[in-house]
Design brief:
The chain has 134 residues and is an alpha/beta fold. 22% of the residues lie in helices and 20% in strands. It contains three helices and five strands; from the N terminus they run H-E-E-H-E-E-E-H. Strands 3-4-5 form a three-stranded parallel β-sheet, covered by helices on one side. A two-stranded antiparallel ribbon has the order 1-2. The two termini are 34 Å apart. The mean pLDDT is 88.
């Protein structure tokens, strides 16, 4: 398989040293496109542009975007959950999946130790999925 953006490869040089607008890595089982574009694009136009023909798009980041959110919170990491019940976007949270047996939140809390957490999460995410208008 292709190694993605590995320094020293021709593809890396074209994009980083040659300042090409777009560089494509192609392998028999995958493609990766590097594209220079302003980083102010929100996830909905990106999903429409690159994934308009798929049933479900999961995005990472975009915490301030008005999208349904699932947070994975691990107690051992040592930082509090991102969900702030007082924040204007607190209603965007579908669920928090966690290993913390004491966590309470303003949304559904699913625990890794529960046997059905993944099935329940899939159902919740599908119910709250945002439909992208063209």
């Amino acid at each position: 398989p292709a190694l993605v953006d590995r320094e020293g490869t021709d593809t890396w040089r074209h994009f980083h040293e040659g300042s090409s607008e777009r560089t494509l890595i192609a392998a028999p089982d995958m493609r990766v496109l590097f594209e220079r574009a302003p980083d102010d694009t929100d996830p909905e136009p990106l999903a429409r542009r690159y994934m308009g023909d798929v049933d479900l798009v999961l995005v990472e980041g975009f915490k301030r975007a008005s999208l349904p959110k699932v947070e994975v919170y691990r107690k051992g990491i040592g930082v509090p959950p991102l969900l702030d019940p007082a924040a204007p976007n607190a209603g965007d949270w579908i669920a928090i999946v966690t290993d913390d047996s004491t966590l309470r939140a303003g949304c559904r809390v699913l625990r890794f130790m529960d046997t059905m957490w993944l099935s329940l999460l899939a159902g919740l995410a599908w119910e709250r999925a945002k439909v992208l208008a063209p």
